[in-house]
Amino acid sequence: MSHLEGGPESDKRMLRRAFLAVRNRLTTDDVRAAAAALAERALELPELAHARTVAAYVSVGTEPGTTTLLDALRARGVRVLLPALLADNDLDWGAYTGEGSLARVQHGGKMALLEPSGQRLGPDAVTTADVVLLPGLAVDERGMRLGRGGGSYDRVLARLSTSGARPSLVVLLYDTEVVERVPEEAHDRPVHAVVTPSGTRRFI
After folding, report:
1. What stretches in the chain show pLDDT beneath 50?
2. Confidence (pTM)
3. Which residue, among 60, 59, 61, has the nearest Cα to 24 in the 3D structure?
4. Contacts for 21 with CB less than 8 Å, ≥ 6 apart
5. Order of strands, edge to edge, in the sheet holding 193-196?
6. Are strands 138-140 and 145-146 parallel, antiparallel or unpaired?
7. N- or C-end of the chain: fewer Cβ atoms within 10 A?
8. Do 20 and 26 meet the contact criterion of CB atoms below 8 Å apart?
9. Dihedral-angle region of residue 149 (phi above 0 means left; psi in -120 to 50 means alpha; beta otherwise)
10. Do 52 and 79 touch, CB atoms closer than 8 A?
């Protein structure tokens, strides 16, 4: 049986494994250098230059690094919201006020995540963001994002749509993760821009 007969979801699983395998070969130095370049590129985005509130996330392992960017946004006076994973895979949110405001949380058999340790603002807090930075594994030439498959950000995007909020959606990736096409499903929506260590690309 070919993989294609499984439809977009099995194609996505196969692609996720391939992209994660490449990330897992990156060294600490690779990740650190990419994070510095990523922050520099992202801070040049007009959307982030004018944002008052940014919903972001704390990178883990070999994900494109975000902490340099989070600190730079805070230094600009931007309100930064970070997610906390709920039992049903939805996301609550809390404010980032520096490295000391993060706590390492182990979620069952999944990886440990760094989450905001302060007051929880509720899942709807994301609707106040001017920009939402999304994790992902790839984005294609149409702006369609391949997520990690947990479904948390599908819920975030659905909540934004239902609320009528229209933040800029920006995905942070490595250069090799901008590809010709990723499989899509009916609920998938394109992002507005991708930022990689070598530059930015706009889709909408």
Report:
1. 1-5
2. 0.92
3. 61
4. none
5. 91-95, 79-85, 53-55, 131-134, 168-172, 193-196, 199-202
6. antiparallel
7. N
8. no
9. left
10. yes
